[in-house]
Amino acid sequence: MSIFVNQLGYYRQGEKRAIMPFETNQFWLVNEAGETCYEGETLLFGFDKSSGDMVTEADFSEYTLPGRYRVKSVRNEDEQVIAEYSPWFEIGDKVYDKLAYDLMKAYYYLRCGCELTEEFAGPYVHKACHTEKAQLWGDESVLVDATGGWHDAGDYGRYVTAGACALSHLLYAFRMYPAAFEGRSYQIPESGNGTPDILNECRYELEWFLKMQREDGGVYHKLTTAQHAPFVMPEEDKGQLYVFQVSSSATADFAAICAMASQSFRPYDEAFSEKLSKAALKSYAWLGAHPECIAFKNPEGNGTGEYGEWDDASNRFWAACELYSLTGEKKYHEDLENFYRERNFPRTALGYGEVGGFGMLAYLLSKQGKKIELMGAFFREIVQDAAQRVRISEECGYGVSMLDWEYTWGSNMNVMRQGMLFAIVDFFGLEDKVKAAAKTAGLPQKRWRRPGEVEEPYVQGMREPRSWSMRDHAAAQLDYLMGCNALGISYVTGNGENAYNYPHLRPAFADGIEACMPGMVSGGPNRHRQDEKAKEVIPDGTPAQKCFADEVDSYSLNEITIYWNSPAVFTLAFLMAKEMNP
Ligand code: G3I
Ligand code: 9MR
Ligand code: ZN
Question: Which residue among 48, 53, 155, 472 is the active-site one?
Answer without folding.
Answer: 155
